[in-house]
Amino acid sequence: MTVCLQGGADAAWEAAAAVPDPEVPCVTVADLGILRWVRVEDGVAVAGVTPTYSGCPAVLAIELAVEAALRDAGFEARIERVLSPPWTTDWITEEGREKLRVYGIAPPVKSSGSIRSLFGEVTVACPKCGSSDTEKLSEFGSTACKAHYRCRACAEPFDYFKCI
């Protein structure tokens, strides 16, 4: 991620980076790594945003929220959708992973480049009690990017943010 720190870009970055994800409000677009960069060009704050996946229904809402945050911070604003390279769960910050866990969502456990994470089963720890004695109930949870699990130790159901 590249952040230009001249001409007010630091303030623009801070405004855009604080936007919460509309589907998982415990994390910001910066925590998820979908806010790629913010730069100021001729007085206009331009933010690069990468969707989590091509069919993500929240893409437009995220772009509009980032644009509104930049305008609220006093900038003229423009959003650029950045599709290459595609977003990966590897871009979620450590702080973002911890926020997900505290919120009750198990963060991704493997690197997205791992063949096992893409096509095999992973051991997912319960975000409530930490037990690895969990079972997948459904490939899809509350959103397409999450799977639904249950902890056998504490019996709590929870979402797991799948590796992408």
Automatic annotation (TrEMBL):
Domain PaaD zinc beta ribbon: 117-162
Domain MIP18 family-like residues, every copy: 12-72
Coiled coil: none
Encoding gene (name): paaD
PANTHER family listed in its UniProt record: 1,2-PHENYLACETYL-COA EPOXIDASE, SUBUNIT D-RELATED, FE-S PROTEIN MATURATION AUXILIARY FACTOR YITW
SUPFAM superfamilies xref list: Fe-S cluster assembly (FSCA) domain-like
Protein name: 1,2-phenylacetyl-CoA epoxidase subunit PaaD
Signal peptide: none
Domain of life, source organism: Bacteria
